[in-house]
Amino acid sequence: FTPLRDLAASKGIAFGFAVDPSRIRADVAYRDVVAKQANLLVPENALKWAEVHPDPDRYEFGPVDDLVAFARDHGQRTRGHTLCWHRAMPDWLGQVGRDRAEAVLTAHIRTVVGRYRGRMMSWDVVNEAIEPNDGLGGGLRDSFWYRMLGPRYLDIAYAAAHDADPQAVLCYNDYGLEADSPWSERKRGAVLDMLRGLRRRNVPVQAIGLQSHLRLGEAQRIGPGLTRFIHAARDMGLAVYVTELDVDDSAFDGRGDRDGAVADTYKRYLDLVLGTGAVSAVLTWGVWDPDTPHRIGATPQGAFAQRPLVFGREGALKPASWVVAHCLERA
Ligand code: G3I
């Protein structure tokens, strides 16, 4: 089984995982699979405000410093996630009012991005800013930073990140863009309009991240709308990344082969996105199947849903492993 990092690299594609830096230190099997299979790593939670900036005057860089060193030692690159999001916010931000919001946001971004200058190939500067149900202009989400600064929080965040690391590719990351549906068409349109506006204002956004949280029952809805969307992003000069790939298999109907259905969902999605020739990175949201089943939603059989990944526990090969390898070989 050729390591996925080598298959990907031979096509000029980065392949990797969202990782837990503390687990890389503590779990030898985890560390070995990460070292062997990936050439791009992202900390799953360690660069979110709640973890990296837990108090107004305290930053916690230890875990990410370790991860960046591990990546360097294993010929891997790292990417940052995420600087501006409505979740994983520390309580102290609640005391920040409109008068101080811009200073607090830019200081955080300059400090965090500046520390890893030249060592993060890209950053999810803004994550999940589009939520058409919130009824705000441009489909923007009614989030903390929106309420503090209005739509220009995006301009502020990308400018601060670019000042702190001009080499980093600055990315806009979002979910719900993958399966063709009236809802995702609406979201895709709002995302593209927002990105066009930023680019028109010379805001330094250079990539789009498709989180790619797939669902088992949606495989047949992965189709031409997604291809058009990726082409539109490419035609704007944006790099396109698959940033958080996994499959929610809670819709599994209990019949047939669960692993095969999951593998088919990965195949269908990766064949399409890699077929556009515009995708230059594929990251899965974790390294191997979750050890503890976690309830995503009540499943028909009442069983717990998993988010099966590309490898089984402890890095065991499974149908999805071979499927992803073949997709990378064909890219
Ligand atoms: O580490 C603390 C622990 O010390 C504490 O005891 C425990 C109970 O409060 O919380 C632990 O932190 C949890 C953290 O995951 C680490 O396990 C947080 O509560 C929990 O909210 C956090 O969930 C993460 C979630 O984002 C929110 O940040 C998930 O692991 C992570 O997979 C998920 O990832 C997001 C992406 O960042 C953005 N796209 C969607 C994706 C899935 O939701």
TrEMBL record:
InterPro entries: GH, GH10, GH10_dom, TAT_signal. The keyword Signal applies. Keywords: Carbohydrate metabolism, Glycosidase, Hydrolase, Polysaccharide degradation, Signal, Xylan degradation. It comes from the Bacteria. It catalyses: Endohydrolysis of (1->4)-beta-D-xylosidic linkages in xylans. Its EC number is 3.2.1.8. It holds the Pfam family Glyco_hydro_10. The keyword Hydrolase applies. Residues 1-327 form the GH10 domain. Belongs to the glycosyl hydrolase 10 (cellulase F) family. This is Beta-xylanase. It comes from Luteibacter sahnii.
